[in-house]
Amino acid sequence: MKKVVILLLLLVAVSSIDACQSYFDLAKRDLMRQLNLLPKGAKAEKQPKNIILMMGDGMGYSTLTMARYKKALNEGKLAGESTLNIDSFPYSGSIRTFCADNIVTDSAASATAYLTGCKANRDCVGVGPEVTKDPDSYKPQYNGPDSILMAAKKAGFLTGFATNQPITHASPAPLYAHTHSRRYEYPVKCVFIEMSSSL
Asked: Which domain holds residue 163?
């Protein structure tokens, strides 16, 4: 029986990697296209010593615009006369968000995409698109794609994360957990407790 279970787990883990591969390939293609837009002879800057990824849950252009308007109002300025600290960051980018099974995403699926590079189905945390909502399962699935945090840890970097949400919330949870539902916060908390010393 143990051999069957182990084989089944291996098959599921491999299918997760295969399901995510198409997203990794698309990201690589898009990155190469952007790099080809650089002027000829442009040299890469020095490799960064550290990387800080700041992720705002639900933060889009309209949210930033409203924050600028609110700041301008508080300062007694016109709407276009005020900027945010984020406006002065030397590098920024934008992405298109959607989940594997729906054009409208949620925090769980979008955070999974940001943090693992793999699209997930709506409400799913830290798993590939082959995992769907399964109401009969209450245990986290440990076979999802590695997050950027886990990949950095495996590469020997010091890692950590800070959040103003509960650690079990759909936005930070894909850093360390794999489950088919963002609502299973207790099992996600158990995974965090088990892994917290290694994060």
From this structure: 2-17+96-198
